[in-house]
Amino acid sequence: MRRELRVLLATVLFGAAWTWGGQLPRALEDVEAFRVKNVEVHGLRFLSRADVLEAMGITSQSSVWGDVDAWVEAVTDMPMVRFAKVERRVPDGLVVFVTERRPVALVPTPTIEPVDMDGVLLPLDPAKHRLDLPLVEADPPPAEGSLLLPKRIRLLVGEVDRLMSVDTAFLQMVSEVRWGEGHTLVARWAQPDVEFLLPFGLSPERLQEGLEALGHAMSRPESEVPETVDLRFADLVVVR
């Protein structure tokens, strides 16, 4: 029955479009049959469906022929949203696709706040959401009231995000990341307490070589845990 209704409505709309042209959606906004009753929201992890509907301003009087661009802009303006798309499902439905900003690290501002790959501070409680992420130095600190970190820290956060894609298990062991000498990073493990000295843009293969060198050093009888694993030199791993 519902399929037959959709076919009927499509036929009616097609015919009306020839007569009314671009004024058709506006003319249909007050038609009861097109009141929004079903809204699907996809892609949510931290936001709720209610958050999205409130931002869009959807009420019992909203029509599927409302302003899609305005709805998209309203959702995209939410601090946790990177991308949004809204589609109509005539006669009474909307489908909202949301890409949330994903926290990749924590920064002291001085309170501990999550940040995404672009260096945007996110309105999330790390404890509530159990965000087990590396702490990234914030020097220089963000400007007061700004949600965007300074460029130097954005570069560091972006590299943390890239390393996460290179080896998620490695990043899960990292407790802190900071700039080292020159254009290098210092990634510190908590257990065991080891610092990795990494060149910017480290490849997966080089990281694996460093992990293997650390494992070999720790496997020796009566050996102490190394203090550093230095991967800054081409074709050479220095374990100190």
Order of helices and strands: HHEHHEEEEEHHEEEHEE
> What spatial form do the alpha-carbon principal axes imply?
elongated
Number of helices: 7
Tell me the major beta sheet: 6 strands, mixed
Helix content: 25-40%
- Parts with pLDDT < 50 across at least 5 consecutive residues: 16-22
Radius of gyration: 26 Å
Strand order of the largest sheet: 6-7-8-9-10-11
How many beta-strand elements?
Answer: 11
Assembly state: single chain
Quote the average pLDDT. 88
Strand % is 15-25%
- N/C terminus separation: 74 Å
List the helices and strands and how they pair.
Layout (H helix, E strand, L loop, with lengths): L1 H19 L3 H5 L9 E5 L6 H8 L11 H9 L4 E9 L3 E8 L2 E6 L3 E5 L18 E2 L14 H16 L1 H6 E6 L4 E6 L5 E5 L4 H15 L9 E3 L7 E2 L1
Parallel strand pairs: 1-3, 6-7, 9-10
Antiparallel strand pairs: 2-3, 4-5, 7-8, 8-9, 10-11
Provide an overview of this structure:
The chain is of the alpha/beta class. It is built from seven helices and eleven strands. It has a six-stranded mixed β-sheet with strand order 6-7-8-9-10-11. The chain has a three-stranded mixed β-sheet with strand order 1-3-2, covered by helices on one side. The protein has a two-stranded antiparallel sheet with strand order 4-5. The radius of gyration is 26 Å and the shape is elongated.
